[in-house]
Amino acid sequence: MKSKESQQEIAKKSDADLAETIKQLRKEHFDLRAAAVTEKIEKPSEFTRIKREIARALTEQNRRAAVATDA
Q: CA-based angle 61:67:70, to the nearest 5?
């Protein structure tokens, strides 16, 4: 997942797709951290981008969980 997703695009995803997105982003973040230890990273801003995308996806997941418990 290399492209930045907007909040609207994340909101359109199903629960399963959202969970898969979070899983992929966490793996990408882990791989980037591992690469940073062994080599110089070309774009250090990728750390921030990935962390923000994880936060967006988790926020949407938590919002859905809150709505489900209220209903």
A: 145
pTM of this structure: 0.85
d(CA 3, CA 6): 10
Phi, psi of 18 (to 5 degrees): -65, -45
* 49 touches 5 (CB < 8 A): no
Report which of 3, 13, 2 is spatially closest to residue 57, judged by C-alpha positions.
Answer: 13
Six token digits for residue 45:
């801003």
> At what angle are helices 45-70 and 15-38 packed, to 10 degrees?
150
pLDDT digit string (tens) for 6-64? 888 998 999 999 999 999 999 999 999 999 999 999 999 999 999 999 999 999 999 99
